[in-house]
Amino acid sequence: IRLGRLADAEQAGEDGLRVATLLLDREPTNMVALRSRARILGRLGIAAAENLQPSRSLVLADNATRDWALLARIDPGNKGLNAALINSRRSAALALRDQGRLNEALGRLRDNQEFEPLAATSNDVAEALWLSFYYASITAAELGQAAEAERLFADCVRHLDTSQRGLPPDSFKFAFLGAIRTGKVELAHLSGDPARARAEAKGRREALM
User: Fold this and answer.
1) Is 148 strand, coil or helix?
2) Residue 18 and residue 168: Cα distance in Å, rounded?
């Protein structure tokens, strides 16, 4: 996928999907096969999105979400699985956004709020949540829900703080996560408030340099 060879990626993914599904037909709770299928479905969903096939991307993301949810039920203490489930729901929401189904997309993203109690002790969950809340805030703003967009962006920043904790201040990742805070400019713009957008943007460039 990263090399842009989407057709090759889809063929390899479909081959792997058949093998994993055959094994799961015999052993429905085989963790290795289930995890493999979830990952393959997710990657195929990304390939479909990049190939401008949002309907197919949504089906694949929903199927991946089903598998990640089952894995999380089998091993409820595994925060990495919870993070994968959050990311899979986000992928489905992005496919819905690509189809113009913003209310449904926002609903999917809000579903991830159930994992907030885990974020304080898991960077994987915190990172998955800040990105989910970021898209939720943007979607709410596009729907004209300015107050809700601000609330969701505040949640995004809260999980960004957790993700930045322990990172060297001069590291690229620390700077990258800090740059996400400029999202308030975009929120104001999407909410139709250019004056607030200019106010939020003031000094941001200098702060990022």
Assistant:
1) helix
2) 43
pLDDT for 204:
60
Q: By the 8 A CB rule, do 137 and 183 touch? A: yes
Residue 105 token pair:
């997309």
CB 162 within 8 Å of CB 119: yes
Task: Look up tokens 């493999």; give the residue.
Answer: 36
Look-up of token digits 């058949």: 18
CA distance 123 to 80: 9
- Give the pTM: 0.83
The total number of residues written for the chain in this structure: 209
Location of structure tokens 């060879």 = 5
The CB density around residue 149, as the number of other CB atoms within 10 Å, is 26
Q: pLDDT higher for 78 or 200? A: 78
- Residue 136 near residue 119, CB atoms below 8 Å: no
Residue 6 tokens, joined: 């989407």
